[in-house]
Structure formats: structure tokens, C-alpha cells
Design a protein that fits this description.
With about 950 residues, this protein is an alpha+beta fold.
């Protein structure tokens, strides 16, 4: 028989054991993260943590994200980057965006930085000046931003509109300065920043890294191999293969709101014979990732992905190497990149899909896929393994420095000098990504040269003996830094800038940094940062940023004078100068620092001095029996998945209205309720808009809309819609839209009849089926854009349906609860009593970024009132109609109506706000109809990264 006291003692022991077990489990689950042997961060006790609570010991930051359309003129303007006179834009493959990321110190909110990734070539001085002016004019709340804390980086796409340069030499291929092109870049970037500012909230930051082994090769390996062998042995590859990812999470629910990556690969996947505007591989990777995140429960609505450049100077996306495209089947010369005929003109790098004769489109998609796959896989792993950004404060500094004849001392005690800007002979030879002209070759340091070029370029400016000595061993072709007629040819004054966010340090280079230059620079910065940080520094380099000062090669690479060395404009000591200037100023990044450096000697502002020789006829004509928008060629009644489907319309110049935040082309799908819903627009890589003139004097033109259904299509009944704006001589512009007849898209081996009423579950909405101009026919009393989209919120991107009546809610009535309805509602018709696009997103008035509708009434606010008053870019409100109670696109930003960034939709009444629904309550509605398609990655995520060497 047990003693009476045994049971209580057993119970006490049991409870004690349970308490100890609970304590152990609690510690295992909620202990702070620790580092494994490789220095990776992970949470003990599992692969992740509860999303219901913030992690211990992680610093909060102010975080904000914003995105806006910056697509400039897609026709009648040279594309920037390759400097090819024949590469004049004739259409659009994918819209361009600025993506802004703001990070601030919660304890000291004035300590903050803005990092912008533009889908453009570079962040030029002229663009930076315009953005700073625009922010200053936007209101007192933006006074916290200035030169010291704004970085303008770019994806470095060579397929974007040019003619916005501050300096003369790069303006020559673009025939000067185009204010419409410039205005689109500046106004869109300002808008992205203001959206990011309005979305500021507390959040967390962490960093992860991954390796991408097959997205770039070194295009100047001959020069790279002249770096010291012992230095090269420290690294496993001839390019940097590490992608660094900064994750942004909001503190309220730990949802991911954005990511920012740094990885080096040139934006030259699209060849120099491509004439369609696009953001190249990084712009496309952003779109792929943002599309993927729409199906990811960990991501907030309106997720933004920025793919920034790093030390890309010699990193080419043409991973199959350089070959002579002259029929010889030979590789280009390893040393000079020339072919057997001694010229570089036939030498071209091959991308991974080079057998597709499509101007590099397929290769671009593949390189983008490899980056997007890496980013999404890394993001998914960061809940279990990442490095939290922690520590004291957010800091940034910026100053200008004149590199002409600047003396400084190397660490070994040697006194050296940088030079006025100059470009060498191999600059004219181009690269294997974009070959040069005539008989120039790469590696011209000690080679005999055609004396003709000395005579030709000597007429412009003969370099002084001092300049020749300073630039040696570079043979000088363009002595740009010493030429000032008609205005400065090249920059001598550059931006020196760095950011620090916790232990993350961002070097902002004005030059394209080569692989080894970036490694040396990052190592020097990390060594200095270790003196004042209590955590291991994480250093990335962003290049090019803020201005454009060509390239930055190591002294050893400079001596070889390949393209990158010939384009290192300040001489052989340029890299050491940049290291000296940045490392020597890192005291401004230390915790507790409140000082800022003297701004230095200001660069010239050449925007008013620049010329514009890009002359074209600025009106539209049409055959007498035609109307704008008439369908000249209908799609076939039925197509199979994988087909390219095309229609041709009577067109008008897209320069009449850039349709920022909207679209020129759309694919609409017939739903089971009989309504048409947009599922593709200009954002979609696989929907291509092409414009061409058919009669030069009368300015007749045609537009092709082509849908490459191999990319991201599903079976269904569809039609094309074309949006345009015609401009007659001495008359205002008139918007129009037109639709084709419906067509069926079927899977391989499937057959459908050509379609009748009820083909997809209902009639084709009462519109006449004949194509041509859609004259607001029929009625819509159902819910237009996503009432019952199919449960996945995939309805369309910017409901642009026309009709006499809309009494349903237009943009995502029942989107599926995720608010993904679409971004640029552009409905035309007599009445809208539903809410157009998120009516009152968050009470901050950010609803209308580019509400460009025309008609009798606008009582929503369009794009932010009188933003800048600086007369730059001519955003010009060009709306037609009886009344505008709201403010259109910067209503009186400059009053010059330049370029019509403006706002020209038709309709009698819009009381909703056009462009920025309430995706996540932060005003980040999206700038241009970004919610497209089936929300998948066009099969890109199925293929994993594979090492590949040419």
C-alpha cells in the first residue's frame, strides 16, 4: 500500500518536469539567432519562426517602397547605350519603371537614405538635378531629402530612350537633349520617391547571399588576367558571382514588402539591332519577381523588386563567349576581340539562347530568369538563414570632386595624379557586347594606329603633352575633359557618395566598376568600416550611380587598354583615387556623426545649353477612308498555345502621349459572365507594340500588336485592344481605342469551334464583332474587372472597358481579398458610379498618379498638383473635356506642355482615382497596370541555375 503522500509528490515532480520542458522548448523557439560555422544566420529549433511576432534583438528601421512609370518616347528617338545611329526606337516590349527604397532611423527619423533603381542606362547628372528639384518643389515634407542621401542607380539597359545627357559627347548619338524623354525619367522618379515616402512604416531589414554561376562571363578576360596572380587566386571566378539581397519587411505583420539585389551583369542581352524599348535582363527580372510574389503568402500586396547593378564593368550576359559572325565560325581574338579580317565589327558575344534570331530577346529572358530564380529562392530561404541588419543608425554622405589634375598619395607613399577626362582609341572599338566601327580594335596601348584618326580627332582637340603623360599608356582619341565647346564634353567633376544602413555599406560609384576594381574597393571599405562597426561589415558596390563617368579599371587592366581601360577616363590611378576619396570620408558614416562634407565644386548644369537635332513631323495623317484605330489585319479565328498572334491597326504616333501609368496595347479575355477583362498590357514581356510610318510626308502610320503566347498564356477567348492619340496639324490631340475580333487560343492537340455566343460561358458582351474603333457600344451592368475572376484575382491589369453604363464596381470588386485588381483603370463611357481604383487608398491622396482620363468630370486627384514648377520635361496636362476638379498630372508643373507625359483618357465621369489602388494601404498602388496575367513566372522558375562556361 502506497503512502498517502506519494501521489502529491508524483504530481509535483510531473509539473516540475513539464515546466522545465516548456522552458527548454520556449528557449529553443525564441532564442536569438546565432551564427553557424560558415557565418550564416539561422534560428535554432526549426527552419523558420512564427510570423506572428517580431524577432528578438532585431533593430527596427523606417522602410518605404515606391514605383512609377518612366517610359519615355518609344519611337523617333535613338536608344541609349550602344551609340548606334541606326538603333532608333520603333516600339515597346516592356514598360520602364523607377523603383524607390527609403530606409530611415526610427530613433532619428531625419537620418534616412533613398536608393532608386531606374530601368534606364545610367543615373546621369541632369536626371539627378531634375529629381532633386522635383522633390524640393513637392512640399516641406520632402525637405529631409537632399544630395547627401539620394542615390540614383540604374539597371544599365541599352534598350531605353536616350537624349537626357548632361554632357555633350554622349548626347551626339541621340542628336541632343529631348525634353520629353528627360521629363518622363525625372517626373516618374520623383513620383516613385514620393510614393515610397508616403508608405513609410516601421520594418525590419536582413541580408542574404547566393551564387549565380551562369549569368555572366568576363568579356575582357585578357585584361583581367593581367591582375596579380596571387590576387586572382583569392577568387573562384573571373566575375563576381554573388548576389546580395536586402529584404524589406513591415513590422506590423512581418510581410515582405520588397527586395533590393546587387549582382553584376551588363544590360546588353538585347543586341544593338533591337529597336523595342525594354529594361533588359534586370528590368525583366524585376517584373518576373514581382509577378511571382503575387502568389506568395509571405509577400504584401504591391511588393517591389529592385535588381541593381554591382561591379559590372567587364561582366557580360553573353555567356557563350564572343564569336565572329562573318561565316568563319571562329572565336574572336582573345587579345583584341577582332576577327580574321583584323576588325572588331563582326565580333559579337552570344547569349545562352543565341540560336534564336530575335535580337537577343530569348537570351535576355533566360538571363533574367536566372537572376529572378536566384532572388526568389534566396528570399524563400531567408526565414531560416539570413543576417539581420542591426546596429546604430542610417548615414549617408555626398560631395563633388574635380578629378582633373588632382594629386594624392598612395598607401605606399607614392605621389600620383588623376587627369582630365579622356577616352582612348579602344573606346571606339566597342566591346564584344556591342562592337565598334572601322579599324579600331581593343588593346590599343602599344599598337600602330591608323594615322588618319589622329588627323580627324586632332581637329577637335590635340591633347597637351601634360595630358598625354598623365593618361599614359592610353593613346588619347577624345580629349573630352579639356573641351568646352559648345559645352562640356565629359565630366571632370564626379559624385563621391556612400550609404550606411546598420552594418551594410553601399559604395555609389559614378563609373562602371570592373570585377577586380570592385573587389579591391569593397575590401578597402570593409577594412575601414571594421574600425567603427561592432558587426562584420557587408559591403556592396552600386555602379554606375548619380552621374556617368564611364569605366573604372585596375591599373593593371588600364595598361592593357581594352575597352574598359580605354574608358577609364581619369587615368591609371582612377581606382586608387576613388578608394582614397571614399575611405577617407567614412568618418561621416560613423555612429553619432552629425556632420556632412562640404559639397565641393559643383558640376556644370548643361540642360539649358544643350541642343536638340532630333527633328520629326509632329502630326498624324490617315488614308481618307480610314479612321484611327481601324483594324487593318485581324488575328486568325483560332490559334494554338505557342503561336505568335498579331493584329495591325491604323495608327498614330505614340509620342503624342506617353501614356505613363497606362498602356498602348492590351489583351482582353472573355470571362464566363460575358465580360471582357484585361489580362495583358505594356508591362508584359510577351506583348509587343510596334509602330511604323507608311507615308513619311502625310505621316500615315500603322501599329502592330503581337502576343508571343509561348510565354505565359492559357487557353481562352481573347481580343486585342489598341490605345492611341491622334494629332492633326494645328489641332489638339484626340484619344481613341480599338479592338479586334475575338480569337480562340487552344492547347496543343485541342480543337474549339470558332466561337459563338456562350463559347466561354456567355456572350461576348454585346459589342459588335468586327474590330475597328470601339465606339462605346453596349452595356455593362455586371462588375467589370474581377467580380469573379476565377478566384485568383487575375482579372486584369487596368480595366479599360468601354460602355454606356457601369454600375458595378470597376476595379476588383471581389478581387479575392488581396486587392490585386489592377492598377490603371482607364474606363471610358458615360457613367462610373463604382469606385474606379481604390478611391481612398489610405487617405494620403496618392490615388492618382497619372489619372489621365478625359471627359466631363474629374474629382479625384491625379498626380500631385504643382510638383515642381521647374519647367523640366513638359509633363503637360493635355486633357480634353468640360471639367477637371482634380489635378491631372502635375497640372501646372511647368505649363509648357512638353512631350505630353500627360493625361488623355476619354469618358464622361471618373470619380475614382486612376492609378494607385490600395494594394497594401501604403499608397503603393502601382504605376502602370502591373497586375497582369496568370501570376506565374512564364515557366522560368522551373529551371534551376546551371553552371555554364564559354
Amino acid at each position: 500500500m502506497r503512502p498517502a503522500s506519494a501521489r502529491p509528490r508524483f504530481a509535483s515532480a510531473t509539473w516540475l518536469f513539464l515546466l522545465l520542458l516548456l522552458n527548454a522548448v520556449t528557449f529553443a523557439r525564441f532564442a536569438p539567432p546565432r551564427e553557424d560555422a560558415r557565418g550564416q544566420r539561422f534560428m535554432p529549433g526549426g527552419s523558420g519562426w512564427s510570423r506572428d511576432r517580431p524577432l528578438p534583438r532585431r533593430n527596427k528601421y523606417l522602410v518605404g517602397i515606391g514605383k512609377a512609370d518612366i517610359t519615355g518616347p518609344v519611337v523617333n528617338l535613338n536608344l541609349a547605350g550602344y551609340a548606334q545611329a541606326s538603333q532608333v526606337g520603333n516600339g515597346l516590349r516592356q514598360r520602364l519603371y523607377s523603383r524607390a527604397f527609403i530606409i530611415g532611423d526610427v530613433k532619428n527619423p531625419k537620418d534616412r537614405v533613398i536608393y532608386v533603381v531606374m530601368d534606364g542606362l545610367v543615373g546621369d547628372t541632369a536626371i539627378r538635378l531634375g529629381v532633386l528639384e522635383g522633390l524640393k518643389a513637392s512640399g516641406d515634407q520632402y525637405s529631409v531629402y537632399g544630395s547627401h542621401n539620394i542615390a540614383l542607380a540604374a539597371v544599365h539597359s541599352h534598350a531605353t530612350p536616350g537624349a537626357w545627357w548632361n554632357y555633350f559627347l554622349p548626347s551626339i548619338p541621340n542628336l541632343g537633349f529631348d525634353r520629353q524623354s528627360y521629363g518622363a525619367l525625372v517626373q516618374g522618379t520623383v513620383l516613385a520617391i514620393t510614393r515610397a515616402h508616403e508608405s513609410l512604416q516601421e520594418g525590419y531589414l536582413d541580408v542574404g547571399t547566393t551564387e549565380i554561376l551562369d549569368a555572366a562571363i568576363n568579356r575582357s578576360l585578357y585584361a583581367y588576367l593581367h591582375n596579380p596572380e596571387e590576387e586572382r587566386q583569392k577568387y573562384q571566378s573571373e566575375t563576381d558571382t554573388t548576389m546580395t539581397l536586402l529584404r524589406f519587411r513591415r513590422a506590423s505583420d512581418l510581410k515582405n514588402i520588397g527586395l533590393l539585389t546587387w549582382f553584376p551583369v551588363h544590360g546588353t542581352s538585347l543586341y544593338n539591332n533591337n529597336t523595342h524599348v525594354a529594361g533588359d535582363n534586370k528590368g525583366l527580372a524585376s517584373w518576373m519577381t514581382e509577378q511571382a510574389m503575387k502568389n506568395d503568402d509571405s509577400a504584401a500586396d504591391g511588393f517591389i523588386a529592385g535588381f541593381s547593378q554591382a561591379n559590372l564593368g567587364d561582366a557580360s550576359p553573353n555567356t557563350e563567349g564572343a564569336w565572329c559572325e562573318d561565316g568563319s565560325g571562329q572565336r574572336c581574338s582573345f587579345e583584341t576581340a577582332s576577327c580574321p579580317n583584323g576588325k572588331v565589327t563582326g565580333c559579337h558575344g552570344r547569349g545562352p539562347m543565341f540560336r534564336e534570331k530575335d535580337q537577343g530577346v530569348s537570351s535576355c529572358h533566360e538571363i533574367a530568369r536566372r537572376q529572378a530564380t536566384a532572388a526568389t529562392e534566396l528570399l524563400a530561404s531567408m526565414d531560416s538563414s539570413s543576417t539581420p541588419i542591426a546596429g546604430t543608425g542610417v548615414k549617408g554622405f555626398h560631395f563633388f570632386h574635380n578629378m582633373a589634375w588632382w594629386n594624392f598619395t598612395l598607401p605606399n607613399g607614392t605621389d600620383v595624379m588623376t587627369c582630365p577626362a579622356a577616352l582612348g582609341y579602344s573606346f571606339a572599338a566597342g566591346t564584344t557586347d556591342g562592337p565598334g566601327l572601322f579599324d579600331f580594335i581593343q588593346g590599343e596601348a602599344n599598337r600602330p594606329r591608323n594615322p588618319l584618326w589622329k588627323i580627324v580627332f586632332g581637329v577637335l582637340k590635340v591633347p597637351t603633352p601634360r595630358q598625354k603623360k598623365c593618361q599614359y599608356p592610353k593613346p588619347i582619341l577624345f580629349d573630352g575633359g579639356e573641351q568646352g565647346f559648345p559645352y562640356a564634353w565629359e565630366p571632370n567633376i564626379v559624385d563621391i557618395s556612400m550609404f550606411r544602413i546598420g552594418q551594410l555599406i553601399i559604395i555609389l560609384s559614378p563609373s562602371e566598376v570592373t570585377t577586380m576594381s570592385g573587389r579591391r574597393w569593397k575590401a578597402a571599405v570593409a577594412k575601414e568600416a571594421a574600425n567603427f562597426l561592432d558587426k562584420d561589415p557587408i559591403v556592396v558596390v552600386a555602379s554606375p550611380a548619380n552621374t556617368y563617368a564611364h569605366y573604372l579599371a585596375t591599373p593593371e587592366e588600364y595598361a592593357i587598354q581594352r575597352y574598359e581601360g580605354a574608358s577609364t577616363i581619369f587615368g591609371q590611378h582612377s581606382l586608387n583615387a576613388y578608394i582614397n576619396l571614399t575611405v577617407g570620408s567614412m568618418n561621416y558614416l560613423e555612429p553619432g556623426s552629425t556632420d556632412l562634407p562640404d559639397p565641393g565644386e559643383l558640376p556644370p548644369d548643361n540642360r539649358r545649353r544643350s541642343f536638340n537635332l532630333n527633328i520629326f513631323l509632329n502630326y498624324d495623317g490617315k488614308p481618307s477612308k480610314r479612321s484611327f484605330g481601324d483594324v487593318l489585319k485581324q488575328p486568325a479565328v483560332q490559334h494554338k498555345l505557342g503561336d505568335d498572334i498579331q493584329a495591325t491597326f491604323q495608327g498614330a504616333s505614340p509620342r503624342n502621349n506617353l501614356r505613363l501609368g497606362r498602356t498602348f496595347a492590351a489583351v482582353e479575355q472573355l470571362g464566363p459572365d460575358g465580360n471582357w477583362t484585361r489580362v495583358r498590357d505594356d508591362d508584359d514581356w510577351f506583348l509587343v507594340y510596334t509602330w511604323r510610318t507608311t507615308h513619311q510626308l502625310r505621316q500615315h502610320s500603322e501599329v502592330d500588336i503581337r502576343w508571343e503566347t509561348k510565354g505565359n498564356a492559357e487557353p481562352g477567348t481573347y481580343r486585342f485592344r489598341y490605345y492611341g492619340d491622334s494629332k492633326a496639324l494645328a489641332r489638339s490631340m484626340k484619344p481613341f481605342s480599338a479592338t479586334t475580333e475575338p480569337f480562340d487560343l487552344v492547347g496543343d492537340g485541342r480543337e474549339q469551334d470558332g466561337g459563338g455566343d456562350g463559347d466561354q460561358g456567355g456572350p461576348r458582351d454585346g459589342h459588335e464583332q468586327g474590330g475597328g474603333r470601339d465606339e462605346n457600344e453596349g452595356a455593362h451592368d455586371g462588375q467589370d474587372q474581377g467580380d469573379a475572376r476565377d478566384g485568383n484575382g487575375e482579372g486584369g491589369v487596368g480595366d479599360e472597358n468601354e460602355g454606356d453604363s457601369h454600375d458595378g464596381q470597376d476595379q476588383g470588386d471581389a478581387r479575392d481579398g488581396n486587392g490585386e485588381g489592377g492598377v490603371g483603370d482607364e474606363n471610358e463611357g458615360d457613367s462610373h458610379d463604382g469606385q474606379d481604383q481604390g478611391d481612398a487608398r489610405d487617405g494620403n491622396g496618392e490615388g492618382g498618379v497619372g489619372d489621365e482620363n478625359e471627359g466631363d468630370s474629374h474629382d479625384g486627384q491625379d498626380q500631385g498638383d504643382a510638383r515642381d514648377g521647374n519647367g523640366e520635361g513638359g509633363v503637360g496636362d493635355e486633357n480634353e473635356g468640360d471639367s477637371h476638379d482634380g489635378q491631372d498630372q502635375g497640372d501646372a508643373r511647368d505649363g509648357n506642355g512638353e512631350g505630353g507625359v500627360g493625361d488623355e483618357n476619354e469618358g464622361d465621369s471618373h470619380d475614382g482615382q486612376d492609378q494607385g489602388d490600395a494594394r497594401d494601404g501604403n499608397g503603393e498602388g502601382g504605376v502602370g497596370d502591373e497586375n497582369e496575367g496568370e501570376r506565374h513566372l512564364s515557366q522560368w522558375a522551373r529551371t534551376r541555375r546551371r553552371p555554364s562556361r564559354a
